[in-house]
TrEMBL record:
<protein>
    <submittedName>
        <fullName>Uncharacterized protein</fullName>
    </submittedName>
</protein>
<feature type="transmembrane region" description="Helical">
    <location>
        <begin position="34"/>
        <end position="54"/>
    </location>
</feature>
<feature type="transmembrane region" description="Helical">
    <location>
        <begin position="111"/>
        <end position="137"/>
    </location>
</feature>
<keyword id="KW-1133">Transmembrane helix</keyword>
<keyword id="KW-0812">Transmembrane</keyword>
<feature type="transmembrane region" description="Helical">
    <location>
        <begin position="66"/>
        <end position="91"/>
    </location>
</feature>
<keyword id="KW-0472">Membrane</keyword>
Amino acid sequence: MRRAVTFSLVVLTVFLWAASLWRLSARVTGMDLVYAGIPAGLALLLLIGFAVSGRIFNPNDNVRRVFSAVLAVTLLLTIGLVYADIFVFSGEIFERGLAIWRLDIFYQERFAYTLAFAGGIVHPILFIIAGVGLLCLPPPKDGFTMR
């Protein structure tokens, strides 16, 4: 069961990054789209690094549990940031990010672009920060078991 949860989180995350960049590609083209895709590309490389190092699909539940917790917390933090931005700050936080590519002028589609910016740029950055922190942690003793 836990392997299925970890696999589902990985698939959901990769789908979120791809769908968000696809949504941004409707209005952002050329090198701007490449720059927008850099965080997701680096996060994907980190995800592949986790898979190669055996931290994602490790037979030990504790290793998978730590990785799944990092991935789930970054997803929840991104969702929380979007809701806080929309309902508390009236869109001020992500509007500055959308202004980088002049997407703030599309008021009718502002929510969709806010979600795309959060999923394609903010979440990969949060995942990179948390993932590097996870890689810098010393491996738990006794074959990655946490005690």
